[in-house]
Amino acid sequence: MSNQPGPNQSPGATGSAATALPDLNAETYPFSVVQHLIDQAAYINAYAVCDANRTNAHIQGASGTNIGFELKGTLHRFDINVEIPARRAGVRAANVVGRSIGEFTHRWLVIPDDFAAAPDRSPSPTVLDSARSQRFVMEDGVFKFNESGFRGFGTGVTYPVNSNSQQHLLTAAVGEVLDGYGRFEGLEGSYLLSGEITEQGAFEGNLQVRVLDPRGQIRTDSDLGPAEGIIESSSNLSYLIFRGQKKNENVKTTYVFGAGGMPAGFKLKQELRIVDLHSNLGRSRRLRSSVSLGQVIGWMSSEVFLNILNPGAPGTSLAPIPFNSYNVFTFTDNDGNTVGSFTAEGGEGRSFNVKLAGAPGQQALRFGAFQTLTKGTGCFEGVRGVFTDNSIVGVAPHVTSTLYTACICDPEGKYRAR
Length: 418
Prior knowledge:
Blueprint: H1 31-38, E1 41-50, E2 58-60, E3 66-82, E4 93-111, E5 135-145, E6 148-163, E7 166-181, E8 189-197, E9 203-212, E10 237-245, E11 254-257, E12 263-280, E13 288-305, E14 321-332, E15 338-354, E16 363-378, E17 385-395, E18 399-409
Antiparallel strand pairs: 1-3, 1-9, 2-3, 3-4, 4-5, 5-6, 6-7, 7-8, 8-9, 10-12, 10-18, 11-12, 12-13, 13-14, 14-15, 15-16, 16-17, 17-18
């Protein structure tokens, strides 16, 4: 089946379905306008550390078996400073864990693979099995940043990984921002988690929050300065973070077709850029965040499986649209030579319909997903870890603003810069 559009077809459309398909690249508003609107977001990039005084955070079932985790701890400023890829060094980043900027509590319960999670549904007790991957629901999430914060709800998956003869229980999750107060009041967004569950049932790892913030309640253009390394992580995980976006309006998105010639998703290509995220309370103890983009360091190609004509859910905070994707990431040095690549696949994804301030009629979606890292080449050969995708996109025109985070099992520090 050809992916080249005919004279009366939308890009990627073929057959009888062509006349019914919207043009993903048509401009409801100019491409640059939509790019600006979806970039009006605030990012909180934090490192979560559970309280050291809690020796066992496991939730026990009636028979004394572990069925989940009761989490409580602090959130620290977390700067992930990616270096320009190089043939000898590969792709590396300095991971700097700074001062405390907040605190969190969460209740994670293991759930059956087919359980449809919702805030008003309680799962039946399911025994934790650290030897296999399992889903869990995140209940009673509370995130506080001094005078601001929000409640959260979501789902995640555990991933047992063996690295250098050591067993690790990695985890990744996606949640929805609910009931914000203070500087989060009225803001909508998603949060992603990636890290590791310890033998004591504690979580240590990255919390990444992204909210649409058109009025600048949290985001700022001011320089928040670099983080000062305050605590040393006990984890063997290293984090890489990078921005994905279309190079310009000339890069077209095409449909993916399934059985019967019906649309099953879409293909896109993005360039990858260095991104610096900074979150701080500052002297006023008010939460602020800033973002700046650096040079292009590679590209990614993606197939996203989501039927926008029949999504199967309304795309609200409590009824998101499920999706999955297959993503290939390639990193290059200053001369354009390939340094390494990996694939992010599997996992779970959730998408939500959003309205962009100042652009009535412009369709837009928020995406939050987690996956596993596979098929590494070059500097990523043998890579093991989890991956998160935190995106906002416009539809017609199809404009993207994506934050990708790789959480890599890295006991030798191969991906960690000084």
